Amino acid sequence: xxxxxxxxxxxxxxxxxxxxxxxxxxxxxxxxxxxxxxxxxxxxxxxxxxxxxxxxxxxxxxxxxxxxxxxxxxxxxxxxxxxxxxxxxxxxxxxxxxxxxxxxxxxxxxxxxxxxxxxxxxxxxxxxxxxxxxxxxxxxxxxxxxxxxxxxxxxxxxxxxxxxxxxxxxxxxxxxxxxxxxxxxxxxxxxxxxxxxxxxxxxxxxxxxxxxxxxxxxxxxxxxxxxxxxxxxxxxxxxxxxxxxxxxxxxxxxxxxxxxxxxxxxxxxxxxxxxxxxxxxxxxxxxxxxxxxxxxxxxxxxxxxxxxxxxxxxxxxxxxxxxxxxxxxxxxxxxxxxxxxxxxxxxxxxxxxxxxxxxxxxxxxxxxxxxxxxxxxxxxxxxxxxxxxxxxxxxxxxxxxxxxxxxxxxxxxxxxxxxxxxxxxxxxxxxxxxxxxxxxxxxxxxxxxxxxxxxxxxxxxxxxxxxxxxxxxxxxxxxxxxxxxxxxx
Length: 489
Prior knowledge:
six-stranded mixed sheet, 48% helix, alpha+beta, globular, single chain
């Protein structure tokens, strides 16, 4: 009954109205938020690699304002005077990965609409990139990427995406390549400024832009008459409601599967493991809910994985999940003390469930509650409800998607979970899966020996960039060629 009431609240939580080029989301608030999305799918790989730097510079440059140059310091003061919030995100996530979507979000008082939209226009399309500001941001970004690449968890995900997908896939963020590119501009800031100016022009091209307005509907009559909406659409060259896809267009390598790789990360004392197997279960797939619920069942507190992996001290963290963005079923081990034993007990747990052909009904109900809460919490506030609608629109999903998921969670039974376990999760713990391990040098030999004992022949990567280049240059490479690369053939 509580879930049903929540579903009703979700369905009635926001109202979305489409006008040419603009989607309006009704929320109870005294503030107005403009949420822009920019599709970067057709950008060059170099331009996409510079998006992180562009986001760092977003509110950190001089502007062309009212036909005159507004110095950096004055631009900062005006921003603080007019806007309560201004930020640019590369798909709304941190430095480690991004999709094909750049987002810009602005928050201000409704009565300041006219002043704010003009200033926002300057922030988006009238930046003046100076040598000093760009140089400072470049050094900051180089440091940020360098810090990220000293973490085994980050290196793990970078190797996974870079080795599983073509280098021509502009959706995946290769931090190794980004670090190299950024370093190459340290002594040629003028060239970098030209690249950023071109990036700004390409990014704001009208057909790539979508605008969402999050505001209280009762204020629309006063502040958003039709002519104002038309002016806003004209200002940002909007012609239709356009929803660039939030899901990246990944291109899976056809050869080289499965890959079983190890990289030594001397700056991290723990070991990490990542398994992936192709699945292609998008958000609207019939098995999406059952797949998510089984992962919740085995991974929950006091659940099978909790007892077997963390309970025995093999790894501090673990995660089993479906990744619609990469079309994969994934298993992650973090801060592991014994990678091979943690892998083995996870594999045995899945196989035992299939062999016994039954699940604990009490734990199923607990897992249902936890999974349902993951969706319900996205609607805790008016803003989070509207933002969730924005995300669903860009995923190509109906606004009723999350409430439909709640209904499916209630109706999913043990037979459904056993079925997806056999079809999706069992193959993850076979030799058809991709395996990546990151560990300190002191653990390397032990892990290679232990993994060989359970049938996994691990290849050691001395130079990640060299191997990625090898894959990019030989996209139809045979397994025998890979053996030769690792001096095994």
